[in-house]
Amino acid sequence: MKIIWLTLLAVALIGCGCGKRDEKVLSLSDHPKRIICATPGLAEVVFALGAGDRVVGVSDYVVWPPEALSITRIGGWMNPDRERLLMLQPDLILTQGLHEPLRKFAERHGIRFLQIPTDTLEDVLQQFVIVGALLGHEEEGRQLREKLEKQLDAIQSKLANVPPRRTVLLFERPEGVLRNLTTIGPSTFLSSLLELAGGKNVFADVVGDYPQISREALLMRAPDVVMELHGGELAAMRRDAIMRDWQAMSSLPAVREGRIVFLTGNYAMIPGPRIVETVEKMAQLLHPELF
What we know:
Blueprint: E1 3-5, H1 7-15, E2 25-27, E3 35-37, H2 40-48, E4 55-58, H3 82-87, E5 92-96, H4 100-108, E6 112-116, H5 121-135, H6 138-158, E7 165-171, E8 181-182, H7 189-196, E9 199-201, E10 212-213, H8 215-221, E11 225-229, H9 236-246, H10 253-256, E12 260-263, H11 275-286
Parallel strand pairs: 3-4, 3-5, 5-6, 7-9, 7-11, 11-12
Antiparallel strand pairs: 1-2, 8-10
């Protein structure tokens, strides 16, 4: 019988600060059959690998693919419903990023658990290989990674002769507030996607993955483009209100040149197989003349 050593999984666990190597081996008959996806990104990964029929529970925030919408919801990333988790009788819980309470819960109840880092673009791409190996879909995992890399390379080639635009990416904020703004640091997958899309992160030298910045810092960096990231579509009235907020910073090049843009869509913040859609949309916003 074919044996799969979980070397990749051990590396992933160490990479996210989980401690000891897991030397356990899985036979084909041991592949998980009842999977909980505690984050939207991993639900998308498992379905993209062709193993969606094994998913018995998903995060409340899962919005894609359509087949996942009817699966039992287990709560949010911070507050999963532990009673519901046990009722679903999973043999594997998957999550992205460090989640010690959930790890300890799984350990206490003898449930296999894997937390996968998705901080960098390399992390995001490698998760397809890691999860594919665990689920017995090794070839699908490798092929999916290769497919996404080719698509990202194609976008980058299209932008090869275009100077990058100095950009600040800001997370969703309430209207009327231009303080305590949250942006992206250099080691995040979103910063890498921004560069692939023909942007230059003006806060690429800061410490931290998602630092808060002041208006003064924003004025000093003087970005040519302000890209606001919103998880869903913006109504016209709200978009207009947000645009009016920026008039208070009329000396900012992005404001003067009318380059306040909005990255919307439920895929934009999810480290999963739809990262290509995120890059394509970013590129369209940054370089509309090419699209």
